[in-house]
Amino acid sequence: MLQNMKGAIFDLDGVIVDTAKYHYLAWAKLADELGFKFTEEHNERLKGVSRMRSLDILLEIGGLEFPEAEKVVMADNKNRLYVEYISRLDESELLPGVKAYLTGLRARGVGIALGSASKNAEFILNKLNITELFDAVVDGNKVALAKPDPEVFLIACRELQLLPEECIVFEDAEAGVQAGQAAGMKVVGIGSREVLKEADLVIPGLHVL
């Protein structure tokens, strides 16, 4: 499966770098300000989900409702805090095997794209010093629909000028696995076999490839 792919599309958080911890810290601070506790277990529900949908889930956990305009301000405040955290990122925070695997794919002539809900994807890639390894970056600024909708992967595939069946998606979230399969692509799950059981292949990280 991996030997024949012409395009590889990677999620960002949990596949390339672990920024989930910084998202969690920022969401937890917002929840604290709103008067309730947001746990790491709660945070699992936010994996691979857009910023506004994540906020809706957080407010649902807290049993709170706000007008749309206030929610936009909350999401912006959370993002400012998150950007403050990730501004300290550097290449040392790349997950094991990432740079070697991407470099190997480039040497084989495989097209490489990022397919992420993050609106800070390009900023993060620059911080990690790996922007030049990607032929296309499709992030939350380019898509209207969140995973499990396949939009992000279909756009990435189009930017690589490939067909869906020629691409493989690398994902760490259940919603991302579903999105990749809905796009007509094979999916490699990064992480737990129990959580990612729908993936075509599940591995602990890119370092094993």
TrEMBL record:
The keyword Isomerase applies. Keywords: Carbohydrate metabolism, Isomerase, Magnesium, Metal-binding, Phosphoprotein. GO terms for biological process: carbohydrate metabolic process. Its EC number is 5.4.2.6. It holds the Pfam family Hydrolase. It catalyses: beta-D-glucose 1-phosphate = beta-D-glucose 6-phosphate. The keyword Cytoplasm does not apply. The active site is at D11 (nucleophile), D13 (proton donor/acceptor). Mg(2+) binds at D11, D13, E171, D172. InterPro entries: B-phosphoglucomutase_hydrolase, Beta-PGM, Beta-PGM-like, HAD-like_sf, HAD-SF_hydro_IA, HAD_sf, PGP-like_dom2. The record marks S116, K147 as: Important for catalytic activity and assists the phosphoryl transfer reaction to Asp8 by balancing charge and orienting the reacting groups. Its cofactor is Mg(2+). GO terms for molecular function: beta-phosphoglucomutase activity; magnesium ion binding. Substrate binds at residues 11-13, 27, 46-51, 54, 78, 116-120, 147. It is an enzyme of class 5 (isomerase). Binds 2 magnesium ions per subunit. Belongs to the HAD-like hydrolase superfamily. CbbY/CbbZ/Gph/YieH family. This is Beta-phosphoglucomutase. It comes from Paenibacillus donghaensis.
